[in-house]
Structure formats: structure tokens, C-alpha cells
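tool_call: predict_structure(chain=1)
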Amino acid sequence: MNWRRDKAIWYNPFEYLAGYKALLIGLGLMVLASLAGTLTQIWFPGALDLKVAYEGSYGVHLVTSVLSWLIVVAVLYPLARGLSSSKIRLVDMAGTLALARAPQLVAGLSGIGGLSSKAVNNWLYHITEELQGAIPMDLPGRLSPVEMQGWEWFLAINLLGLQLLTIVWMTALMYHAYRVSANLKGTRAGVSFVVGMLIAEALSVFAILRLIVPLLQAGS
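tool_result:
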């Protein structure tokens, strides 16, 4: 295999990398992505979520990232077992799905300089200010307008676009991780993945936003 010329490595490296090696690399990248996200205010509070301008501790970032991955594994693994006639190893499913979250590191690093967070805070400030005219409400103290030059807006919008693309990239990686680990093809692979991810997304968002984050914040 030629690692530089084979374009499939960017969206389906799981034909060559799985099991414990993929698991260790994936967990290591999750640790780094959580650190980058803490420093740049990029948060991943769900199976397929990305939130900009979130001021949370490293513990919140790491726990929610690992929990999101575990929930995806907990949903897709039994689904694959029920649909596939092949012998499926849990370590392969867990390892490839961990590695599939690698684009989160790119998203976290894209927040360096804080431009995307500044842009989002500016938008939220002006939206809230407009709503105040129609609905009486208190403006959150952390929302305040930040002066940005034209080139900063241009760069911020492009960075936000890049962050959105990392979610698309991660979704493609997760699909191939599931497909390869479960040895499924065609409609069965696609439909079961979509159904599984919708369930995992709902469970992860509920668990993180309603249970884990309030618990971690109460203990800090």
C-alpha cells in the first residue's frame, strides 16, 4: 500500500488499521482533541456534535468526548451483531469508531486564535439584542460585541466552514468503521448506520447535556 497516493486512507483507513492499534491511536487523538478544544473553546457534546465558543474545563471536554464514543459503540455493536453473519470483535468496532473521531482534533485546532468563537459570540450577541426589543430578557454577561476586521470575519467564516466539514468527514469515517467492522454492505449497512447514529445522537445529547455536564459542574 502507498500511504501517500491511496486517497482511501482519508475516509476508510480501516481496511489496514483496526483492533487494539486503532483503539490506542483513537483514544490518544481523543485526549489531544479534548485538550485542543479546551484551549480553543471547541466542544463535542454528542455523537455528531460540535459547539463553538464553549468555555468548559478539560475534564468536561474529555469525559463528554469519551462518553459520546462509548454510546456510539454501545448502539452500533449490538446492531451489527444482529444484522451480520460474520464474527464481529468488540475491539474492532470500538477501535475503528475511536479512530473515526480523529477529525475532532482538526476541528479543535481550527479554533486557535479564537476567531470562530468571536464570530459566534458576536452573532449571538446581536441576535439576543434584537430579541430583547420584542421579548424582555436578560442578556448573558459573557455575550459582548467584539470588534472584528473584515479579514477576521472572512477567516472566521472559512474556519467555521472547515469545522462543519470535519463533522461530515467524521461521519464518513464512522460509516466505514461500522461497515468494515460489521462486514456489511449496501442498503443494510447504510440504513442500519443511519438508524443507529440517530439513536446514539439522541442518547449522547441527553446523557451529556442533562446528566453529565450538570454533575461535573456541580462537583467543580
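agent: Helices lie at 19-40, 58-83, 90-99, 103-109, 115-134, 150-182, 186-219. Proceeding to next step.
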